[in-house]
Write a structure and sequence with these properties.
By secondary structure, this protein is α/β, with parallel strands linked by helices. The protein is 51% helix and 9% strand. The chain has a five-stranded parallel β-sheet, with helices on both faces. Helix 5 links the parallel strand 3 and strand 4. It starts with a helix and ends with a helix. It binds zinc ion.
């Protein structure tokens, strides 16, 4: 099959003439999903018999190069998606497409729509126009503005990956930076420096999302490196001076503490309280 199963489902709906006007897609790998979506959009719009990676037609080539005017991908501009970005999308889609059957928009990180941009967006999803399809992409459906969520058809599209960078949607360089902070952080916990460790994180990571990524990496390190003895792609040398002198049972307890932290982080619990609780629980697991 040339498409991910869930996307194939959308493709079948297209053939049945039952395509929704807007889809909310939750995924653990946004870049991969966008690549797959582009294949779906080719399959729907290709004037030839679309096959895996059609390179014959102009339209598919334009989609590959992100140059098709009737496919607009909107990404957060800084920390949020701005109202002006939505306004210009609307203007672009006032006219029918020239080459393709549909005008298609993709909102990458749809959880970054703020109050005013979400409002501007609502018209598209509330009063659907034939010939426009929208995909809202997020890695956390829980934080999508409810008025948007309720007007979209929801699908969850998960990818299996061994690659930490794919999984966390970060670059090699970003991972290295996280590992430097993590090493310092874990060492502080070991040395029982209870107060300075919270400051360390809050001074280096300004966004909740970054803190989440850091703790996901900590989870991976405990799971793959300390528990399984594996070195999975990441530059573990950074951690090589960091010694874990505890048994597997203790590591499993720590993994539970980390995953509880990640769970709590998804709800709007005060971050400083969470960080304090984390350190206290990790410390009580020593000895
Ligand atoms: Zn084609």
């Amino acid at each position: 099959m040339f498409l991910n199963n869930n996307l194939l489902e959308i493709y079948h709906k297209y053939h049945e003439g039952r395509l929704a006007h807007a889809y909310l897609l939750e995924t653990n790998n946004i870049p991969k999903l966008i690549d797959d979506l582009k294949e779906l959009i080719k399959a729907i719009n290709c004037p030839l018999d679309y096959q895996d990676n059609c390179r014959k037609c102009n339209l598919c080539n334009l989609i590959t190069k992100n140059n098709l005017p009737s496919l607009i991908i909107i990404e957060p501009d800084g920390t949020s998606i701005k109202k002006t970005q939505i306004e210009s999308l609307k203007i672009s889609f006032e006219t029918k497409p020239i080459y393709s059957k549909y005008n298609t928009y993709i909102i990458k990180n749809a959880e970054k729509l703020n109050g005013s941009s979400a409002n501007a967006m609502l018209k598209f999803v509330e009063e659907p126009t034939d010939g426009i399809i929208g995909f809202f992409i997020t890695d956390n459906k829980d934080v999508i503005i409810p008025t948007i969520k309720s007007r979209c058809q929801s699908l969850v599209i998960m990818y299996e990956s061994d690659n930490l960078l794919d999984k966390l949607n970060i670059t090699e360089e970003e991972l290295t930076n996280y590992l430097i902070i993590i090493k310092e952080y874990l060492t502080k916990i070991d040395n029982n420096e209870l107060f300075s460790n919270k400051e360390l994180i809050l001074s280096k990571l300004s966004e909740r999302k970054e803190i989440e990524t850091m703790f996901k990496i900590i989870f991976e390190i405990y799971y793959n490196y300390f528990l399984k003895g594996l070195n999975k792609n990441y530059n573990i040398e950074l951690l090589s001076n960091y010694q874990m002198n505890v048994n597997n049972q203790k590591i499993i307890q720590k993994l539970n503490i980390i995953s509880k932290f990640l769970q709590d982080l998804r709800y709007n619990v005060n971050i400083e309280l969470l960080l304090d609780k984390f350190v206290i629980e990790m410390r009580s697991n020593y000895g």
